[in-house]
Amino acid sequence: MQLSQGTRQRISFSHRALSSSSKAEKTQPPKKIWFRETGGLSFRCTACGKCCTGTKGAGKVWVNQKEREVIADELYMDVKSFDEAYITKDSSGQSPKRSLRTVDNRCIFLDPNTKQCSIYEVRPTQCRTYPFWPQMVVSPFDWKVAAMECEGIKVDDEQSLKNLCQDSRVSAKHVMDQVIVQSVHKSGEDMLYEDMIDSLDFIEQDTLEMFEHDLTEHNKRLTIYESDSILVQDNYFLDEEDINMSDREIRGPTRSLHFKSHLSVTQTEVLLYDQKSDVIPRSPQSLPIRHDRLVLDVHRAQYMAFGWIQPNKPLNVAIIGTGGGALPMYVLHHHQRKNESSPLQRVQTLDCVDASQEVLDVAKEYFGLQDTYPIRVICQMGEDYLPQNGLKLNILIIDVAKSTENPESESPVLIAPPESLVSQAFLDRLNSDLMDQDDAIVVWNVVNRNTSELKSLVQKIQSSFPHVHLLALPNNYILFASMHPRHWEQISSD
C-alpha cells in the first residue's frame, strides 16, 4: 500500500514555495534538523504510562478507520460495537475525528494497576510514534520540555548534546521517519503505521529532504537572552497547533520568557509584529512587540477584573509578579486615554512589582516594559509592597508562584500563590492599608492546588473578602475577591 498523492503533497510543505522560488534559491542545499548533528536522540521507554494520561490532552489518542478495525478485531468485536464502547467522536473541526475514550484522565486501554497497554500489539500510530512528534523534536528546547514529562527521554544539560547515551540512542533517520508518519497520520490518511513506514520507501528523497527543510526553517525558536536562570526566545511556527507553547488562542510569532528551573511553564508571552505583513509602529524601545493583544489565557483572565470596576473611574492598579510585563503594558495601551470619549477607565497609577531585578531588567530590555508615568517598576517582595503616597488600590493582581519538591517526579513543581501572599496577616493588610474599600478587586493566580487545598484557600480569602469568584482555566484557576457584590457573570476578557 502506498500514500495517496494528496498526502505526498502534504509531506512536502514547500511545493508552493519551490514553484515560485528563484533558480538560485532552488540550488541551496536543504536544511537539516538539529538532531542530525548529534546522530539522533536519546530515548528508552520505561513503560511508566505517563504518555497515556494527563489533563492537557496527553491521554487523547486519535484513531483512523483502519486502526479502529484492527483494534476491534483484536478484541473480537465488530467496528460499530467497538465504537460505541471505546470511541469518542469530535465534530468540532471541518471533518469529524475519533479518539479513544479516556477514564479518569487516562486512555481507556491503559491498565491503572500495571500501567501497561492492553492493546499494545495493535496500538495506534500516535502511540507508536511517541515521543517523536513534530512538536516535541522541532528544537532542543522542545525536546527538553518533553523530557520533563517523559522519563524515558534523556537530556544532559551539562555536556554537549553529542554525548548521548549509546544504549538508548535512536538514529536521526528513525526519528525523522516517526515525525513524517505522525504528520501523515494527523493529516487524516487512513493507513496503519506499518503501511506508512513501508510507503516512505516510495517517496522521492528530494521530497523527504524538503519536508525536513521546512520543518526546520518554518518552525524555530531563536534565543534572545539567556542567563543561569532565565531564557528569552522568539518563536516562529508555521503550524502552531500542538507546538509546545502556552495555552493560547492568538496565532503568530511570539516572544516568551521562561525560568530554566521550569522550562515547560511560560512566564510571559507577547505577540510580535509579523515582519512580512504588519506595519510596525515606532516605539521608544524599537521593539517589534504588540502590546494591544494578550497571548496567555491567564493574563486575559486577570484582565477581567477591569470589567467589574466602575466605568470612568480613575484607577490605581498594582501587579505583584510582573514578569515580562505583558499585562501592565496591555493595560497601559488600552487605559492611557488619548481622548475623553474612551469607554475604558483611565489608569492613574500602575505599580509593577517583582522580587527579581534580573526579571525586571529583562522585561524592560526585551519586552518593552516602561518605567515612566503612570508605571512605577519596583523590585520588592510582594508581601512588603505598599502603594505610593498612601493611595488605595482599585485592582491588585497577584501572580507569584513558589517552587516546591514533587514527590512523584524529579522535577520541582510551582505552587501559587505562596503562603506569604494569602496569609491572614497579608489579607488584613490588604483591607487596612492597600485596597480601596469602596471599589476594589484582588486577583490571585492559583496553580497546582488540589481540591481540598483550593476549598481551604477560598474559605480563607472569603473571611476577609466575602465575595469570591473562581474561574477555571485549562492549567490553573483565577480567583477574584471583593468586599462588595459583583456581577461575576457579566465579564469580558478582551
By secondary-structure content and strand pairing, the structural class works out as alpha+beta
> Quick one: biggest sheet?
7 strands, mixed
Rounded mean pLDDT is 84
Shape: globular
- Biggest sheet: strands side by side, in what order? 15-14-13-16-19-21-20
Q: Report the uncertain regions.
A: 9-25, 157-164, 240-248
Compile the SSE list and pairings.
Blueprint: H1 5-11, H2 15-20, H3 23-26, E1 41-42, E2 62-63, H4 65-74, H5 79-86, E3 87-90, E4 97-100, E5 102-103, E6 106-107, H6 125-129, H7 134-137, H8 140-149, E7 169-170, H9 172-187, H10 193-199, H11 205-217, E8 219-226, E9 230-237, E10 254-259, E11 268-272, E12 289-290, H12 297-303, E13 315-320, H13 326-335, E14 347-354, H14 357-366, E15 375-379, E16 395-398, E17 402-404, E18 413-415, H15 424-434, E19 441-446, H16 451-462, E20 467-472, E21 477-482
Parallel strand pairs: 13-14, 13-16, 14-15, 16-19
Antiparallel strand pairs: 1-7, 2-4, 3-4, 5-6, 8-9, 9-10, 10-11, 11-12, 17-18, 19-21, 20-21
